[in-house]
Amino acid sequence: MSRNRPPLPYKPAPLSSNRHHQWASAGQIQDTLLDPLELGTLAPGSSSQSLATKDQKEPVESMSQTEMSRQTHIRKIISQEEAYIEDLNIVEQRFINPLLQSQGVIPPDQLQAFVDVVFSNILDLRECSKLLVKNIYQRQREQNGVIQWIGDVFMAAAIELSPAYPNYIGNHLAAEKRLKEELEDNLDFKMWLEAQSRRPKPASASDARRKLDLKHLLNRPSEHLQSYPVLLNVIHHETERGNPDCDFLVTAIEAVHSLNGVAQLRTFQMAMGRGDPRKWEWHDLVGPTVREKMTKDEMKRQAIIFELIKVEMVYVKDLENIGVMYIQPLLQADPPIIPQPRLNQFIASVFNNYADLHQHHLRLLDRLHHIQREQHPVIQSVSAAMLDAVLHFREAYLEYITNYPIAAWKIDNEMKNNSDFKAFVDQCVRHPSAHRLDMRNFINRPTPRLLHYEVFLKSIYEATPPGHSDTIEIPEIVDLLNLLRKETEPGVASAKQKVELWKFSEGLMFKPGESFDMELLDESRSLIFTGKVMRQSERSLGRNSWSELFVLLFDNYFVMTKLKEGDGVMNYQVSRRPIPLDLLTIISFNDPPTQRSAGLLQNLRGGSDTTSWSSPFGSYAPSPEFSSIFPSNTTSESRLVYPFTLHQSGRAGGIHVLFAESAAAREEWKQKLEEAFGLRKVIQESNNVFELMTLSIDTFSSPSMINGIGIKNGLMKQQSYMENYTGRVTCSVPFDMADGRGLVAIGCAEGVWIGFRHDPKSMRRVLHLRMVTQCAMLHDFVIFLVLADKSLFAYHIEALVPSTPHAPQASAVPQKLNGNKNVQFFSVGNVQGRTLVIYMIKKGSDSNFRVLEPVGDKINERLRQPAGFGSKLGFKTAKSEWFRIYREFFSPSESFDLIFLKAKIVILCTKGFEIMDLYDFKSVTIPQREDPRLAYLSKRFEQCRPIAMYRSTEDEFLLCYDEFGLYVNAHGDPSRSTDGVIEWEGRAERAAQHNHFILLFNSQFIEIRSLKTGRLVQIIPGTEISCTWDGRGVDDPVAQNLLFQSSGGEIDEAQDTKIHIVMNTPDVRASEMGRTNGVSSSVVTQVVAELSLTLPLVHQAGNDNAV
Question: Distance (Å, rounded) from C-alpha 589 to C-alpha 987?
Fold first, then answer.
């Protein structure tokens, strides 16, 4: 009903009290009420039965019964307000002031905060009520004791009450909770409160007979505010129509209702999961009068906006609870629930940047609450707040959501392996704020949040009337949210893949005693593909010969497993040693399908539809005679399977024929393998530990026979033909001349070449010797040693590459050091300051060793010029002995190599590693084969050949055999229980060490591993690879230090230490010599190169994670 309401008949006095009231001591607050004697007939203290004094009987007597009742109810409002003021006085005088003056009831550092929370701004409410009573009495005086208009006074009061009451009532739930907590935890406060409550109430209080109850007094403002509309409705009912006060009362009732709604709204906003857990709905805060004026769509729109804000409050509270329920208890637990070294990393990886999300949504919620308070009960739009939030929290969500799969896995994994953590998580489920949800539910809260916003905004959009700004703004926000969700998808997929990879890592089961580190927990690792394939054993026939494999294709390994499920957990039994992708190649994906029940051999070895394939490792053609053994099976149980063929290089290598269930599945395997190979190539090229630097590219060559005729039966016997080739390169050594020239000597079947180290075209032959197998340089004595055709020669380096044309040593005649004995190998080194040369002569099954020491004076003395015809022709040698025999000893076993330690030597022989003292020839052989811990290796010790020994740590060595490596301590005992044996991928013919890496050489590839862990870090493929220099040298202190001392030194020094290799070039050039004896030939060019650490990784070489 619309009325023309008259203006307010007076301007109410403003409330001067501070909204943020500072607590005052008793007596400081002055009473603002007028003296009752000044108020006239209806002053406080007058009899409630009498409305007027004697002088005012006439106006009262002339009142109608209705007006009398109206004035009675006005008087009732005044009495109620005065009693309410007295109750608030009691709160201050009996509780606030005594508590502030108490000693030890509440700890001093917590007292003020407790008072602020529990009592809030209750004294501001008292000031508002005092002002209301004052204005009513002022109206009474102005209207001669009979109040004609009261509605406008309450209209003004509603304005004054509007800030104070919503703040107090909104905080009331928090006050109740804080008071309850203090009563439960603080016995002194409980006893103090009981004592204060037993004191009698003043007679003027609202219920003098009732015991003082602080909880009741704190709830009085909420009850009192709700009583205003009831009393004003009664007064309005008693007011005669036509009285202007009717309109004022209607407006005042609406204002107080609105104030109640705002107070309820504030209670709702302040709840945030605290206090009363009741569910709030939009209609709880919006009265029926307001709702009646709305359309159905608008009511729906407002309800959705309210729901959006309500859900946002719950979300913000849950984010806050992550810190309260989980992070802080984990950090403060004593003893720790998660071991301290892992705790911070666990918290960072599980909860990630939740705190950033919490701050973003706290700001969004503050804006939504502000809009709600400003526009209640009808909110125009929340689009601006939502758009600002979406633009700001984008990066935080990208980081959090993409990490969630990892976080969830870490929680599950920790619960599985840590019973204390599982108990902690179960206990947290019972936390009042957990709502019976576990940790995973809480950390998952942000994951669907973006989609929830889309749903809410689309619902608001559907209920928005045409022409509203939301019809333009909401679609833009939804597009941004949708784009953000799509941006998280690749990261989520990558994280899920990583989790799957970790699950596979845990589920992989190797044979007893086997272990294999594929670095699946490395952050850079990725899982490319998984799937089921079939394999058929050639040892059995028919349907039983088929087995199902589950293949895992990682970015570094190809792993064939068999699925095994137990206790609800899927495990993967590794059926073959994992294959490095660097050693795997595709042979064929085009072979025709075969019948599964017919057997693999029908397709591969017989039948008209069988094809042959070829590969770099050989060819395979079916034999017709097998076709009759395996007849076609056309029963309904037969089905086609589609083969694909792979080849594995290395010791455990060979052909792998696997079968996919369909052509599409086979094609997918092909695509995924090619993807994995391409990814592996890119990763390796950017993370190679070693790189090749060419020493010679086209100097050395040898013939390659075609048509299967060997060299010994063909061209090797033709001297004139072989003179055009250098033969196979066998050895090399770098050295520096006195004038600073950096040179390299390379030995091969046809002699020794020397040239500048990084100038391949400078290579020149300096020695015409046959079958050169070893060379070495004694830098301090400028002596070059060569083992050729089992004879050991010593040359003065000036005789090979003179510094000046007339150098005294340029004409020095070489010396043969072994007499008439056949030398198998020699080694040079330094033992306690002595430079020694040790060579081995095989005698039956024994190895005889002669130790030579160079004689510096003899080497450097000026040669006497020999006289006579023979000397002039160069047939005689100078009478100068460059070496003397220092020791001789033998070993009753076949020996393969000899290594110098700092004070001893190590003989690599069939018995193992024999460590000998050259002074007394006492020796000990490691490992101790009788050790029961090595029983499982006893046969392998007999079958495998020792090739090297390196110090891996200060107290540990790695013994290298041609098939495996074994970590032992200084006494030769096994030093590691789980990963003490490292299986090589290939059968190593030789080993070398550079910095913190070992290199294992076979003809197909170089296998590079971490010296400390044995982990495979790089494979360098090639053809006919061999090591020509392993970095050892008597005068190379860097090499000696790295080989036999602690590997913890500076790595920059190792840059000068190089390892030399030789390999065939990929291309084979046809020989222009034509045919000889019907044998066609081609030329194989050999590349000699040095291996050195790549510059980007040199400073990280000691860290496995660098590769």
Answer: 29
